[in-house]
Amino acid sequence: MPLSREEEVTVIASFMKGDLRARDTLIERNLRLVVYIARRFDNTGTPIEDLISIGSIGLIKAIETFNTDKNIKLATYASRCIENEILMHLRKTSRMKGEVSLDEPLNSDADGNELLLSDILGTEEHIILDNVEKKIERQHMFHAINLLGARERYIMECRFGLNGKVEMTQKEVADHLGISQSYISRLEKKIIQDLRENLNQPIS
Predict the structure, then answer these.
(1) Is the pTM above the cut of 0.70?
(2) What region holds the HTH cro/C1-type domain (predicted)?
(3) What is the per-residue burial (b if ≥16 Cβ within 10 Å, else e) of 116-132?
(4) Which of 2, 105, 147, 159 could form a disulfide with 114 if both were Cys (CB 3.0 to 4.6 A apart)?
């Protein structure tokens, strides 16, 4: 369940003092938000689990960079970061592999008009990244990756295109390293194991 406003203020304050357990609580209690936003893009041709994994990176970035001095709720800030992270992934995938059609209908607006991927992504002259996202750099990645061993960290960097690595599929990483795809899958499941429970639950 999401934190109450009072609980959120207390937990954020603890995290700002360096309590990593508080950070984990913020992540756990906002997982439904990741799922909710990821499911809005589930007809783009990208597997929902990949969208959730990418969205979870946006959530953790939001928590890591949240500024309590600004008059904005964490959920509002996190929503933008999660959406931008997914959109960046879709843009990169579209540019590299041509798998995502810019004319693919994503949803309908309040008037019943189709919302296309191109409406959100824009053109090369109008990239979706705004000032908020520009300030969120790759080095603000979640602590879990930093705590991994060298090999595991390399796998995650390849999977999500971190630290200058080229983004790869699970199979591509497995073939590159000569290990099983199931091993790579287990690492990713650490990120999404809690999210799977919330796939069919609406945000309260």
Answers:
(1) no
(2) 168-189
(3) ebeebbeeeeeeeeeee
(4) 105
R_g (Cα) of the chain, nearest Å: 17
Reported as a single tens digit per residue, the pLDDT across 138-156 is 334 444 566 566 777 787 7
CATH class of 5-136: mainly alpha
Is residue 46 within 8 A of residue 100, CB to CB? The reply is yes
Distance, in Å, from the CA atom of 150 to the CA atom of 171, rounded to the nearest integer, reads 19
Residues 93/46, Cβ–Cβ less than 8 Å:
yes
The residue ranges of every structural domain in the chain are 5-136
Cβ contacts of 156 within 8 Å, gap of 6 or more: 145, 148, 162, 187
The most confident of the ranges 43-47, 123-127, 186-190 is 43-47
Picking from 107, 137, 136, 133, the residue whose alpha carbon sits closest to that of residue 120 is 107
Which residues lie across from 108 on neighbouring strands? 114
